[in-house]
Amino acid sequence: MKILLTGGAGYIGSHTALQLLECGYEVVVADNLCNSSYESIRRVQEHTGKPIAFYEIDVADGEAMDALFKAEPIDAVFHFAGLKAVGESVQKPLEYYRNNLSTTITLLDRMYANGVRYIVYSSSATVYDAANVSPRLEDMSLGCTNPYGWTKFMGERIIQDFVTANPEMSAVLLRYFNPIGAHESGCIGEDPAGIPNNLMPYISQVAIGKLEKLHVFGNDYDTRDGTGVRDYLHVVDLAIGHIKALEFALKHTGTEVFNLGTGCGYSVLEIVDAFENTNGVKIPYVIDGRRAGDIDEYYADPSRANEVLGWKAERTLSDMCRDTWTWLQKNPNGFRE
Ligand code: NAD
Ligand code: UD1
Questions:
Q1: pLDDT digits over 112-131, tens only?
Q2: How many whole angstroms separate alpha carbon 105 and alpha carbon 140?
Q3: Pocket probe mutation, ligand 1, options 122, 151, 191, 198, max atoms within 8 Å of Cβ
Q4: Positions marked active-site
């Protein structure tokens, strides 16, 4: 079975490509490399000893996508391609709406025209209305606070409406919580450009001495220790969740939505502790003010994914910290030389 991964050179896509190949699937990647490099694809091929058909194209380019679908008999699509930086989306809303929505619309259109009926979509926990209490359940109210979030919200809606209009189709919308970590081999991992916005990539840069200290955004939240609480899950568990979602999609029609998280929240200081204890490195930090738009805590209720997909996050916080550190030690400059 041949699976197309849009955005497959990126952080989550490359880990999913590796798992798919190890499970015996064939993998095709369409990525314009706007936030990734071909090196991740090369590493996945090297690690698995299996080939990936790679197309350096924009997923919003209908002709290029048509040519891909004509050249490769694709059975199902994992749609990772998109821009994902919240702050940048506030500065450049049109870029985010244009990229994230036009990729989704073109992809659905060209998939359908070429007889491909199954799609698994990368949504985000950010689509839940911040006023909800945790644990977050799939049927809770939705609402976003920034353009990036709205593109995920609208992406879900577009897919759902398209599947309603074409009932022979099958879509699984996956709401990821906070993926961190790396493949345990250290051959692939997260490699953000510039100064990281997200917690674990920032801690990573402090750990290898590229940044002096972590800035903890607020210690006056209504949480155990006053710092923000999130549901961190290992990127390999997330990748496996996609394969479970695919297996489900192949047997059903219609649209289904699942949280992918552990169901367990950790605070910023607990993450710092876990990183220090697991890896025996010190993470100096200072307490700063709150980051605009942050909320105190959110974590998933993952029981639907457990019951319906048979998926459960298996890896611990210590595994996430250890695998991040292995990746960093082997690749202090990420995928760059
Ligand atoms: P990433 O930036 O590492 O990967 C996204 C990939 O999409 C990149 O390789 C990029 O080059 C590619 N891409 C972007 N626009 C494209 C286009 N028009 N045509 C072709 N390729 C394009 O991000 P990631 O962390 O792997 O995230 C994957 C998906 O999961 C994204 O849709 C993101 O919004 C979503 N998501 C990520 C997180 C997270 O914390 N990483 C959380 C929730 C949801
Ligand atoms: C971020 C995105 C969110 C996305 C999610 C996916 C923002 C505002 N939100 O959420 O849309 O779905 O990633 O993983 O970017 N923190 C620090 N210091 C830092 C970085 C983070 O204290 O240098 C804290 C934050 O305040 C938060 C926690 O660490 O409490 C996690 O932050 P982050 O990794 O950016 O993830 P989210 O805020 O959950």
A1: 999 999 999 999 999 999 99
A2: 25
A3: 122
A4: 148
